[in-house]
From TrEMBL:
The keyword Protein biosynthesis is assigned to this record: no
Keywords: Glycosyltransferase, Transferase
Domain of life: Bacteria
Signal peptide (from-to): none
Organism annotation: Streptomyces fragilis
Protein name: D-inositol 3-phosphate glycosyltransferase
InterPro entries: Glyco_trans_1 (IPR001296), Glyco_trans_4-like_N (IPR028098)
Record domain Glycosyltransferase subfamily 4-like N-terminal: where: 17-173
A Pfam family matched in the record: Glyco_trans_4_4
Residue ranges constituting the Glycosyl transferase family domain according to the UniProt record: 189-339
GO molecular function, one term: glycosyltransferase activity
Keyword Transferase part of the UniProt annotation: yes
């Protein structure tokens, strides 16, 4: 089966975050079962031009052009838009990681026009919005593709309710599908001073400043602890650095910038605790990757993975920023660390295995192809 995965942007810094990681994980899982996945996206930041594959997945990447000062919503590629119809007709299934932008929406519309089975996955990016541009895009395209898709994948009940609200009616083709991660060997318990990691985009919703603010309380008990802030800047780096200076933590908190996927896994293996203070986070891949190597995670109550982490004992779930330091300190206790690490690795393998996720996804694809054939024959 030829499956085209369309995402908004691929870059060396992982600027677009989780959706690209999800698409690549699914593509690897599909390829392992003999299918032919391909990645379609804009590209930015590659010296010498976009690559022809990403981590071994064949890719059609088009240089990004910024048309409007609207973040990811303002970038596109005239060449990609001109070829979208041909690209989708070459696929048996088009799997669009949908956002309100000028890449994934046009590709989804092209699939509908070509009557190629369309599967959507929104990663929490399509929710009710009062912004003028969102209202226009919803009226012109978003509702149309939601209604026309053979299946719309959602991560949580909250995301499903958001999609219903955007559509203005219950979404008849909704399918619950979690994100998955490849199996990893569990890391040995790290040696040396405690190392606390934040590895996500530096944007306001992810609260990297809260991570810095938790450091002094941890350092009072573990004065040799190190705090690592990794990830591409999306507006918060200057604030993070200013807070580090205000707290006089320059020798304890280190901003290392954006890392490759391989480097992120290396840092997760070195870390004693992973902390993601973000709010309203649907299903963060960085947390799943942390669990996969056995690194306990600290997340807030509004994180979509919080119930699973809390129930399994794979880390700590906190109500707000004030509780981050206490949760980290608990997980630095040797007995707690050992138990949480084992629970984290077990949770990733049992609940979020990429093999199980791909198995269910292939059932979705099969239903989409079958429905398409039935419409053609009718």
């Amino acid at each position: 089966m030829r499956v085209l995965h369309a995402v908004t942007l691929h870059s060396p810094t992982g600027a677009f975050g989780g959706p690209v990681r999800v698409a690549l994980n699914l593509a690897h899982g599909l390829a392992a079962r003999g299918h032919r996945p391909e990645l379609l996206a804009l590209a930015e930041g590659f010296a010498g031009g976009p690559p022809r594959d990403v981590e071994g997945v064949p890719a059609r990447l088009y240089p990004a052009r910024r048309l409007l000062p609207l973040g990811f919503s303002g970038i596109t590629s005239p060449a990609l838009l001109a070829r979208a119809g041909r690209l989708v007709r070459e696929a048996d299934v088009v799997h669009v990681h949908l956002a309100r932008d000028l890449v994934t929406l046009p590709v989804a519309l092209a699939a509908l026009r070509a009557r190629v089975p369309l599967v959507l996955q929104t990663h929490g990016m399509v929710d009710p919005s009062g912004k003028a541009l969102a209202k226009v895009l919803d009226a012109l395209a978003v509702r149309r593709v939601l209604r026309g898709a053979a299946a719309v994948l959602h991560l949580t009940g909250h995301e499903r309710r958001d999609l219903d609200a955007v559509l203005g009616a219950p979404l008849a083709t909704a399918v619950h599908l979690v994100n998955g991660v490849p199996a990893q060997d569990p890391r040995p318990q790290p040696a040396g001073p405690p190392r606390i990691l934040y590895a996500a985009r530096l944007q306001a919703r992810k609260r990297p400043v809260d991570f810095v603010d938790a450091a002094p309380a941890v350092l009072r008990r573990h004065p040799d602890a190190e705090f690592v802030v990794a990830g591409p800047d999306e507006g918060e780096l200057a604030t993070v650095r200013r807070r580090i200076e205000e707290l006089r933590l320059a020798d304890r908190v280190f901003c290392v910038g954006a890392l490759t996927s391989a480097r992120v896994l290396e840092e997760l293996r070195r870390a004693h605790v992973y902390v993601l203070p973000s709010v309203d986070e649907p299903f963060p891949m960085s947390v799943l990757e942390s669990l996969s190597v056995g690194t306990p995670a600290v997340v807030t109550r509004s994180n979509g993975l919080a119930p699973a982490i809390g129930e399994a004992g794979a880390g700590r779930v906190v109500e707000g920023a004030d509780a981050l330091a206490g949760a980290v300190l608990e997980l630095l206790e040797p007995e707690n660390a050992e138990k949480a690490s084992a629970a984290a690795h077990r949770l990733a393998g049992e609940a979020f295995s990429i093999d199980a996720v791909v198995g269910k996804l292939l059932e979705v694809y099969g239903g989409a192809v079958g429905a398409g054939q039935a419409r053609t024959q009718a």
